[in-house]
Structures are given as C-alpha cells and as structure tokens.
User: Fold LamG-like jellyroll fold domain-containing protein from marine sediment metagenome.
Amino acid sequence: WQPKGRYFDGTDDYIVLPANWMPSTGTIEMWVKFDLALSHHLFSSDDNEVSIYNSAGTNILFYYDGAARITSVPDWATNTFVHLVITYARNTTGYIYTNGTELGNGAIPDTAVTNVATRLGESSSGANDYTGTMGEVRIYNRALTPLEIQHNYLATKWRYR
Assistant:
C-alpha cells in the first residue's frame, strides 16, 4: 500500500473478492491512476460476467452478463487520478461517470449474475493486469444517484491531488 491506494505492477498484483457478492442493482466506485495507456482490467469476475476494462486508454467498457454493455471514451490522461463510477440495475440503464460527470450509458439486461469470483487489478483469466494505483474501492448494493456520485467525488478528491 501507499498513501493514495494500492499499487498494481502490471504483472502479478491483484485482490480477490469473495464469491456471491454481486447485487442485481449496484454501484462500483473507485479512484484509479493509470501509469500506462495499455489495456487493463480494473475489476473482473469469472467469464467477464461483470468487468470494468480500459481498452488501451481509448475506451472504458463495463461488461455485464459477459458482454460489453456500456462503452465510453475516457476524459483523462495517464498518471492522473480519476474518480470512476459504474452504476447498473437489471433491465434498465447503466452509467459510467468520471470525476462526477456522466461519460456514457447503456442497456443492462434482465439477467441475474450470481456466484462469481472477482478480482481487482486483473481479469479472471489472469490477463491484462492493471498497471497503476487504485484507491478507495467501494461497492454498493444500489445504484447511487448522480448527486450522490458528485458528492462522493467532491468529498474525496482532495486525497488524490
């Protein structure tokens, strides 16, 4: 660990979350700083049932039920902390936010994702390891509102400047 979070070296660093954590409606919130503009898994469960993937710095993708459901173009540079938030709910719309602002949205299917083992910083297959720092990862069992996301960003951004 370091003062602003956990450093991932891009080769063998990851954190395992327990299975059966995945709510049908939720929010995944984290502060991240990419060292390189490479393809990285920030958050990945078995078979990409749920996954957050940075595609070489050109797209952020949120996978749900094994398929990309939300794609957006990131609005940040490497070596800069960003507050990244994904909200989702089955059979409705999911959203990607950075620094309190919506970047993209997409349809989430009415499919339950259960009993999935999840890793922070690496895909479930062990590929596309994250290179950078990750701090303050929060997982909620409800979709935060845009106002709550903005509040969390403003309340914590001082730590990452």
